[in-house]
From TrEMBL:
UniProt KW keywords: Metal-binding, Methyltransferase, Transferase, Zinc
Pfam families per UniProt: S-methyl_trans (PF02574)
Species whose genome carries this gene: Streptomyces pactum
Signal peptide: none
Name by which UniProt lists this protein: Homocysteine S-methyltransferase
Gene Ontology terms for molecular function: S-adenosylmethionine-homocysteine S-methyltransferase activity; zinc ion binding
C-alpha cells in the first residue's frame, strides 16, 4: 500500500517514535489504575493526552502513537460509555495527536499512528503478555474490526497493531485491517526469539510478508535486549521496514500492577538497530521524553 507515510519509511533518515504514554501521564500526576488505563483520560482530561504527545514531539519524536491502546467498545461499555460516545473518544485520540503536532515548535513533518492494542489489553489483567485467550480467529477479528474502522475513519497516517502476543491474534488483525484504506504496522511483544505465546519469530513475521496493508513489522513492549535479533529476523523474513520500540527493561508485575527491576534502555543501541533494518525507532513502557531525545540524537546524521 502506498501512502506518504509508507514513502517516508523508505527514504531519508529513520523516523523517531514517541515513548510511553502512561508513564508520561503518571509523571504529570494522573492516576491510571483502572481498567481503561490512559484511555480514561480521553473522556475526563483529553488535554492531558495532548500535552503528553506534545512533550514527545518537542523531544524529537516524528510519530505520536495515540492513547487508544486500551480503547475498545467492550472496555468502555464496562465503564458506562455507550457505543456512539466510545466511537467519538477513539476518534478524539487521533485528533489529540494531530493537535499536538500542530502546536509543536518544529519544521519536521509529524505523523500520527492510531494504536490498536491486543484483546488482552481490554481484559486489563496482563493477558496481552500471554496471548492464547481461548477465542477463535473469527471472534478476534470481530473484536478488532469495528474499532479499527473507527480509527481508520479518523484518518491517522498509519494504524499501529501493537503488542500482539501470538500468531493467532496477528492473523485475525491482518484480516481485520484489510480494505480500510490506511496502512498499518504489525508489532509483536516478544521474549527472546519467540512471541509471548512461544511461537518462533520467523513464523510470526512471515504472516505479514505478503499483507499489502502492512508497511512495517517489528516488536514493542519487550526487553531492549530482545530487539537486535528481532530486527534482523523481521527484515530478512518480510523485506519490509522494521519498527522497534522496547520497554525500559523493567518488568511488569500484572498481579501487583507495578514495574519491577532496573532500566536497561540505552539510546546508543539504536544505531545497531538501524543498521539491521529498523526504520521506526522509539520506546514503549517507562521510556520518557529524555530517552526519546537521546534516540533522536542517535539517529541524526553527522
Amino acid at each position: 500500500m502506498t501512502s506518504d507515510f509508507a514513502d517516508a519509511l523508505v527514504s531519508g533518515r529513520p523516523l523517531v517514535l514517541d515513548g510511553g504514554m502512561s508513564n508520561q501521564l503518571e509523571s504529570a500526576g494522573h492516576d491510571l489504575s483502572d481498567g481503561l488505563w490512559s484511555a480514561r483520560l480521553l473522556a475526563e482530561e483529553p488535554e492531558a493526552i495532548g500535552e503528553a504527545h506534545l512533550a514527545y514531539f518537542e523531544a524529537g519524536a516524528d510519530v505520536a502513537i495515540t492513547a487508544s491502546y486500551q480503547a475498545t467498545f467492550e472496555g468502555f461499555a464496562r465503564h458506562g460509555v455507550g457505543r456512539h460516545a466510545a466511537s467519538e473518544l477513539m476518534a478524539l485520540s487521533v485528533e489529540s495527536a494531530r493537535e499536538a503536532a500542530r502546536r509543536a515548535r518544529t519544521d519536521r513533518r509529524l505523523w500520527v499512528a492510531a494504536s490498536a492494542g491486543p484483546y488482552g489489553a481490554m481484559l486489563a489483567d496482563g493477558s496481552e503478555y500471554r496471548g492464547r485467550y481461548g477465542l477463535g480467529a473469527g471472534e478476534l477479528e470481530r473484536f478488532h474490526r469495528p474499532r479499527l474502522e473507527v480509527l481508520a475513519a479518523a484518518r491517522p497516517d498509519v494504524l499501529a497493531l501493537e503488542t500482539v502476543p501470538d500468531t493467532e491474534e496477528a492473523a485475525a488483525l491482518l484480516r481485520a485491517v484489510r480494505h480500510l484504506g490506511v496502512p498499518a504496522w504489525l508489532s509483536y511483544t516478544v521474549a527472546g526469539d519467540r512471541t509471548r505465546a512461544g511461537q518462533p519469530l520467523e513464523e510470526a513475521f512471515a504472516l505479514a510478508a505478503d499483507a499489502d496493508e502492512v508497511i512495517a513489522v517489528g516488536v514493542n513492549c519487550c526487553a531492549p535486549e530482545d530487539v537486535a535479533g528481532a530486527v534482523e529476523t523481521a527484515a530478512r523474513v518480510t523485506g519490509k521496514p522494521v519498527v522497534v520500540y522496547p520497554n525500559s527493561g523493567e518488568a511488569w508485575d500484572a498481579e501487583a500492577r507495578a514495574w519491577r527491576g532496573r532500566s536497561s534502555f540505552a539510546a546508543g543501541e539504536v544505531r545497531g538497530w538501524r543498521a539491521a533494518g529498523a526504520r521506526l525507532v522509539g520506546g514503549c513502557c517507562r521510556v520518557g521524553p529524555e530517552a526519546i531525545r537521546s534516540v533522536a540524537a542517535a539517529l541524526t546524521p553527522g
